[in-house]
Here is the input.
Amino acid sequence: MTTAATPPAGAFARLRRDPAAVSSLAVLLLVALACLVGPLLTGHAYDRIYYDYPRTPPSWRAYPEPGTLGPALDRLALRMRVRAEDVSVTPEAVRLTLAADRPVDERVLGFLARSDLFGPARVLARSPDGRRLSVEAPVRRLRFLLGTDALGRDLLTRTLVAGRVSLALGLLATAVALGLGVAYGAVAGTLGGAVDAAMMRVVDILYALPFVFFVIMLVVFFGRHLGLIFLAVGAVEWLDMARIVRGEAMAIRRRDYVLAAEALGAGTPAILRRHVVPNALGPVIAFAALLVPRVILLESFLSFLGLGVQEPMTSWGVLIADGARAIESSAWMLAVPAAFLVVTLVALNLFGDRLRDALDPREA
Here is the structure.
């Protein structure tokens, strides 16, 4: 007994010869690799707040800039209740004398170590009465290639970590939609009749539910967390997959090899497993590739509304929402995550289109 071919034999060969498909796949792999490995190489934790660098613009130069050290020392001296005198600044370290009207407690040097500008200070000399303390502290050099956000967190690190969340959510929700949609649609299309009608009416009812209202109700009852977003998106996105697979299954069950299997006594589970599902994989794979960007965009929309990922975790939607509020004074806060999101969505859509064309039987 023969079956129809699964995806055309030359589909993936045509895909490899398509420059647009290869380029889009390369971009996706680079973005995924950057999001996976990049946060380990930036030198910053995604939730580390640098209080001295809020809304720092992107730069290839290392901070702090020379002109900012003097005012920063004056502010620290005020907090230490001393006076900063004889300040000498070099690119590697700063030397100064801490003076006060009473003996200076060396424990105040902890203010320098806790600063984002300086490292732990060491005492060079101390006056006999203890009112003057000569100290040296190394200058802490930091780079923010894509700037910082309103709290002083490195935007490059947060964008890459946000990419992990958005891409993982897109892939996991697509996998759920693939599993539920294929199983549900294949059963409905193969059985047909009253069973098919009842199953598809359930799909129609779920289609009629307002998605945002559904998410709000979940947030009200269960709170805000990442698993909730995954549940909300996965509960909706499988509906289109079910309809597509149902249509393919209704066409496949009329094929000669399926009729021959029924004549030989094959049961419905065997027909589903051996004939219907394998021969419906072409359009299913293509639709799954196009579903990933839809899920990412949907998560970004929910996070933009404040219904998605919550601090300190982040996603591209959260970063775009933050950047939109600060676009007049800190445009890079919007441009950086938006650029990553746009590049990823364009590459995913382009690859999905090319994959759909490659799996089209008419192209075989």
